[in-house]
Amino acid sequence: MRRLTIIIAMVGSMMMAISCHCHTHSTQASYPTECEYLNNDLDGSITLRAYGQGRNRGDALAQARKNAVKQVIFEGIYVPNNDALSRPLVYEVNAYTKYEDFFNAFFRDGGDYTMFVHGRDKRIQTNEKSWSGTQAKISTTVTVERALLKQYLKEQNIIKE
């Protein structure tokens, strides 16, 4: 009788383990692709919620920072009651392809984009992470130094006055 109870318990626990494993839900669909405005520091920088994905946590964080800078340059971030900060820095059509060599070097790992984005205004434990087996997805708070970035793009002759 004791053996029968042990066998039933083992079979039941195996069935529960199998059924629980089959119903894992991915949170990938809940991650937006565009950055969200959080704060304007009135010094030419804006704080954003940025999203990225990569092979691991470090790659996902780097991708989130790149996405934030790229959106500020080419698409702009909607800042309520401030049209000047909402505009993209580069208005030129197909600017990314026209200045492809510059932007490829700018956005490479450890490239110049790192001078204009940081996470100093981020609160501790505010990153949201998910793992889909092969990719990590993360949302993090970053600050983009928009005024410095604009000056840098002028010096590199990407923006014309």
Average pLDDT: 82
Supply the helix-strand structural class: alpha+beta
Number of helices: 6
Number of separate strands: 5
Number of domains: 1
Relative helix content: 25-40%
Residue stretches low in confidence (pLDDT < 50, at least 5 long) are 21-25
Radius of gyration: 22 Å
Given the C-alpha coordinates, what overall shape results?
Answer: elongated
Measured distance between first and last alpha carbons: 88 Å
Question: Which terms summarize this structure?
Answer:
161 residues; alpha+beta; 6 helices; 5 strands
Could you give a short description of this structure?
It contains six helices and five strands.
Task: Record the SSE blueprint.
Layout: H1 2-22, E1 36-40, E2 45-54, H2 57-74, H3 83-86, H4 95-98, H5 100-106, E3 117-118, E4 128-131, E5 136-145, H6 146-155
Antiparallel strand pairs: 1-2, 2-5, 3-5, 4-5
